Amino acid sequence: MSPLLPRANGGGGRARIVGIATAIWAASIFLSRLIGLVREQIIGRTLGASRQADLYFASFTLPDFLNYLLAAGALSIVFIPIFLGYLERGDDKRGWHAFSVIANFLVLAGTLGLVLLFYFARPLTALVAPGYTDPADVDTLVRLTRIILPAQIFHLVGGLLSAALQAKNRHLLPALAPLVYSAGIIAGGLIGTQYPALGADGFAWGVLAGSIVGPFGLPLAGCIRSHMRWLPIFSFRDADLRRYLFLSAPIMIGFSIVVVDEWIVKNQASYLGVGALSYLQYGRTLMKVPIGIFGMAAGVAAYPTISSLVATGQVKEAYDLLARAIRLVLTLTFAAQICLTVAGFDAVYLVWGLFANRFSVTDAQATATVLGFLCLGLGGWATQTVISRGFYALESTWLPTLVGTIIAVLMVPLYVALRIEAGTAGLAIASSLAIIVYVAVLGFLQRRRFEREAAARGTTLDRSSALLPATLRLAAAAAIAIGVGLTLRIGLAHWLGGQHALVVILRAALLCSVSVGLYAVLAYLFGVADVTEVARLVRRRLAGRAAPSDRGGSPDGG
C-alpha cells in the first residue's frame, strides 16, 4: 500500500477495501488521462488548428459555468460525509432521503440554468468569446454550445450517483464513467469524419451521448443494483440540503483562478487569429497529463490520512505528510516540465502532426511554444490539488476560494496586457504566473494555519517541513536542465533533424534522458531531501546486492 494511505483502524478488512479503492482510482486516473489524450489527438487530427476547432473549444465555456455554479466538482467531498453518516448508523432510509432531496434540487436548479443559458446562448457568447464576430462563427458557436449544455445535467446527477456508490465502497462504475465519456466523444468525432459537413458537431454530439452513458448511466445502473430509493421529495427546509448548500457555498459563490483561468484564456484568445485557442488547448491537454498522474494521485492518496491525523489532533504529523506529498509532486512535475519543454515539439508532433493533414509542422511549433510557457506553472497546477485538500482536512473551504477569487480579479489585466503584447505565448505566461501566485499565497497561509493549530495543541512544526527552500532548489535544478536541454536540441538539429517518426522519437528520448538525468543530479547536489533520500535507498539496495558475493569469497574458496 502507498505510504500516503491510512492504516486501517479496524484491521485488515478496511485496509484491503482502501487498497482496492486506491488501485481502482489510480488505474482510472491513468487510463482517463490516456484516453483523454487519444480523444484530443483525434480532435486535433480531425479539426486541426482551424476556426472550427477554436469554436468547439470555446463552446464549453457556458456549460462549464453551469457545472461550476452548481458545485459539481464538490459533490463527492460534500455529499459522501452526509450520506455515509446515515449508512454507518444503519439508517439507509434516511440516507436515500438525503440523496433524493439533494438530487431533486440539482435537477431543478440545473434544468432552470440550462433553460436560461440555452435561451440566452447567443448574447452570452458575445461575452465569453467576444473576438468571434463573424456571423457564421457566432452561429456555429451558439449551436455547439446548445448541443453540449444538456450534458451538464447528466454530469451533475451522475456525480451524486457516483458519490452514493463510493460511500458504499463500490468504486468500479464511478471509475469507469470518465473513460466511457471520453469514448463517447471519440465515437462522435469518428462518425463525424464520415460526414465532413458535420465538422465539430460530431464531437459535440459525442459529448452529450458520452455524458448520458458514462457519468450518468453507469452510476445509475450501479445504484439501481444497490437498491437505490430516489424519492419525489423536495424541501428547502431539509437539514441535509441546507448542510449541502452551506458546504458547497464557497465553490458556488467564489470564482477561483483554478477554475476561471481557462475561461479567461478562452475569452482573450478569441481576439487572436485562427488557431490561437486550439494551440492553447492542445498545449494544456499535454500539460494535464502529469497534473493528473502526479498531482491528483497524490491528493487522493494523502487526503484520507491527513484528515484522520487532523481529526485526532496530530496536526504536526498531518503537515509533515502534506509537505512530503507536495515535495514529491514538485519533484516529479519539474521533471515532467523539463521533458515537455525540451521535447515539446516532438511530443506535439507525435500526438497531432504525424501522418495528419490538418495539423502542420507550423501548428506543432506554435503549440510547442505555448506548451513551454504553460509548463512554467505545471508545478503550481499539480500542487494546488494537494494544498487544497490540506484546507479541506482543516474544514476550511472558504479561504482557498476567497484567495483564488481575489487573485483572479487582480490578474485579469495581466492576461489582457500579455495577450496584446505577446499573443498566445502571453496568455500562457499569464496563466502560469497566476497559478504560481495563487499557490505561493495559499501555501504560506496554509503553513500559518497549521502553525496556529499546532501551537494550540502545544507543538510546533519542524523547520525541515518548510516548502520554500526545496521548491527553490528544485526550480533552479530544472532551469539549468532546461537550458542545457534546449542547447542540446540546437546542437542535434544537424544530426537528428526532420520529422520522420523514428527520428522524432529518438530525439525526444535523448533530450529527455539527458535533461532529466542532469536535473536529478543537480537536485541531489543541491541537497533536496527527498532526492537524497532516494539516492541513499538506491545505494543501500546496491550494497545489499553486492554483499553476498563479497561474503562468499573468491571462486577458488580463498
Characterise the protein shown here.
- With 558 residues, this protein is an all-alpha fold.
- It has 21 helices and no strands.
- The protein is globular, with a radius of gyration of 25 Å.
- Mean pLDDT is 85; it is low at 1-15 and 551-558.
Rg on CA atoms, Å: 25 Å
How much strand content do the residues show?
A: under 5%
**Secondary-structure-derived class:** mainly alpha
- What is the H/E string? HHHHHHHHHHHHHHHHHHHHH
Shape, principal axes of CA atoms: globular
| Structure annotation, total helices | 21
Q: How far from one another are the termini? A: 44 Å
The major pleated sheet works out as:
none
Low-confidence regions = 1-15, 551-558
- Give the tally of β-strands: 0
Q: Helical content, roughly?
A: over 70%
- Write down the overall mean pLDDT: 85
List the topology elements:
Layout: H1 12-47, H2 51-58, H3 61-69, H4 75-88, H5 92-119, H6 121-128, H7 135-148, H8 151-167, H9 172-194, H10 201-225, H11 239-253, H12 257-269, H13 276-311, H14 315-342, H15 344-353, H16 361-374, H17 378-393, H18 398-456, H19 468-492, H20 501-525, H21 529-551
Could you write a compact summary of the structure shown?
With 558 residues, the protein is mainly α. The protein has 21 helices and no strands.
